[in-house]
């Protein structure tokens, strides 16, 4: 059974940082590209970052978070990370870890972790 469990969310002031983690199990983690999705209240999910499988672990980040968020992975620990710096109020929402079905879609995601950026 595929399981993705996010952690690390919380309340942070504007300009602050958080590091999200996603523990993966039930599939060969190193073989799959992974993504972090972001959902605001009342909106559909959008991808903020993606990391490829294999050597090199190429990444892609959305323009809205470029230079502030960094996605990474530890294949030995089956864990995906999202380092979030210089957080802004518009970053408030639920962040999901997702397994890529292909570069544009996802087939599994976790329960999400809430990030609230507010003073």
Question: What is the element layout, followed by pairings?
Answer:
Elements: E1 3-7, E2 10-12, E3 18-25, E4 34-39, E5 46-51, E6 59-61, E7 69-74, E8 79-84, E9 93-102, E10 105-109, E11 113-117
Parallel strand pairs: 2-11
Antiparallel strand pairs: 1-3, 3-8, 4-5, 4-9, 5-6, 7-8, 9-10, 9-11
Description:
The chain is mainly beta and 119 residues long. The protein has strands spanning 3-7, 10-12, 18-25, 34-39, 46-51, 59-61, 69-74, 79-84, 93-102, 105-109, 113-117. The relative contact order is 0.31. A hairpin with a 7-residue loop joins strand 5 (46-51) and strand 6. The strands form two sheets. Strands 2, 4, 5, 6, 9, 10 and 11 form a seven-stranded mixed β-sheet that branches. A four-stranded antiparallel β-sheet has the order 1-3-8-7, with no helix packed on it.
């Amino acid at each position: 059974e595929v399981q993705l469990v996010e952690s690390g969310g919380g309340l942070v002031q504007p300009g602050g940082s958080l590091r999200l983690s996603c523990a993966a199990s039930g599939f060969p983690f190193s073989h799959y590209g992974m993504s972090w999705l972001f959902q605001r209240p009342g909106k559909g999910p959008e991808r903020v970052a993606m990391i490829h499988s294999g050597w090199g672990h190429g990444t892609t980040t959305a323009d809205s978070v470029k230079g502030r968020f960094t996605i990474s992975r530890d294949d030995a620990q089956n864990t995906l990370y999202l380092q979030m710096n210089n957080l802004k109020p518009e970053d408030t929402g639920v962040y999901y870890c997702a397994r890529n079905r292909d570069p544009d879609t996802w087939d599994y995601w976790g329960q999400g972790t809430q990030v609230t950026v507010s003073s």
